[in-house]
Amino acid sequence: MTSPDLIRTDVVIIGAGPAGMLLSHLLAADGVESVVVETRSAEYVAARIRAGILEHSTVDLLRQHGLADRLEREGDEHRGIYLAWPGEKHHVDFVDLVGRSVWVYGQTEVQKDLVAAREAAGQQVLYECGDVTLHDLESDAPFVELVHEGRTVRVQGRVVAGCDGSFGPSRAAVLEGVRTTWERVYPYSWLGILADVAPSTDELIYAWHPDGFAMHSMRSATVSRLYLQVPNDTPVQDWSDDRIWTALAERLGHGHDGWELTPGPITEKSVLPMRSYVQTPMRHGSLFLAGDSAHIVPPTGAKGLNLAVADVGLLAPALVDLVRKRDPRLADQYSDAALRRVWRCTHFSWWMTTMLHTAGDAFDTQLQLSQLRWVASSEAGRAGLAENYAGLPIGF
Ligand code: FAS
Ligand code: PHB
């Protein structure tokens, strides 16, 4: 059997999504080399439709590292969101309340900017890798083995960063008996659409309705992104375009106070399950987890992508100290520091999700409406939502 091709680097990064590509960028800025190993093609990774909201600290970090030029030009800065329920619509102004805004800029755009920056820097990314396995994680010389273009390749580093999302091998590489997992599956899903129509709102609308939750987001001045609550395992073909727009109009308050939802051609529709997942610790020996490989949140709080960025904002300096200065202190603190924010965002995502989604329980309905009235009418309630939605400082 021929021996594997050997690539040596400082950090082996598994996953070329936002966490992996941002980590490679931040490490390189401090002279730490990495090789990124990705199972899908570059085109597949670039085309995935996902998050839409960047919180304040995410934008700050992208700006600090020269990754926000196009975001500043093409992104849309929002002061807040609307909370709505039948007969009511209230604006929650984050800037007035906590001095922080959010940006509407799709994850696909963030990914494009990251890929462009890494390509310009000559970053080595191995796409379309198969049989990715992790080895010697309890040593100072871990390696990842894979098949790439028909050849077995061993990528040897000082550290392995598991940025391979919720279906990658890294989370399972934290041995049973070492790892603890928490999971909650919510009793509903989202049907999401992209539509070639100008948004009918200046800022996002999160709407409670007895028929189910709905949300109006957007991707640009000509593309709208909208979601509506559906039962789990809903076949997307059960929802015709007309049925979708009728339900969205009803749930978002079309006709209330003269507001109208303008429909348009739907270009993409998909059903997204709602679940929370946390795995601890986020470090095991020479393996460090960041992003969806360690945690998943329901998208109601717009936290998934932002949490991945926050993890990387903590992990990059820790690995620079460990690899360049042989100083393990930040690396030893990484998991606990990252998990403080992970649990804060997990709670906030649960709080938003359970406040806004109906599950057919009349008692819950009264609790939700009372919660919505309190948040909308109380400055303390609005500030609590604003602080969490606009994002706590990295390192919180
Ligand atoms: P990613 O999953 O983005 O990237 C992981 C990468 O690892 C992928 O490219 C994958 O191909 C690769 N990989 C997997 N297995 C591998 C292996 N064996 N070897 C090598 N590579 C491997 N968040 C929000 O904030 N708002 C939203 O509206 C929202 N919508 C979402 C919709 C969907 C359908 C999904 C799945 C997620 C959504 N999220 C949303 C969350 C999402 O944005 C994630 O938080 C974000 O992509 C996290 O980035 P990464 O941690 O880099 O993980
Ligand atoms: C989106 O625009 O895709 C989006 C916005 C806010 C959320 C979830 C998704 O909470």
What can you see in these coordinates?
The chain is an alpha/beta fold and 396 residues long. The chain has two domains: 5-52 and 106-179 and 281-359, 3-Layer(bba) Sandwich (FAD/NAD(P)-binding domain); 183-274, D-Amino Acid Oxidase, Chain A, domain 2, CATH 3.30.9.10. The protein is 37% helix and 28% strand. It is built from twelve helices and 21 strands. It has an eight-stranded mixed sheet. It has a six-stranded mixed sheet with strand order 9-3-2-13-20-19. A hairpin with a 2-residue loop joins strand 6 (80-85) and strand 7 (88-93). The longest helix has 28 residues, at 329-356. The radius of gyration is 22 Å and the shape is globular. Bound molecules: arabino-flavin-adenine dinucleotide and P-hydroxybenzoic acid (PHB). P-hydroxybenzoic acid is lined by residues 51-53, 204, 217, 225, 299-300, 302.
Keywords:
12 helices, six-stranded mixed sheet, binds arabino-flavin-adenine dinucleotide, D-Amino Acid Oxidase, Chain A, domain 2, 21 strands, 396 residues, eight-stranded mixed sheet, 37% helix, alpha/beta, FAD/NAD(P)-binding domain, 2 domains, binds P-hydroxybenzoic acid, globular
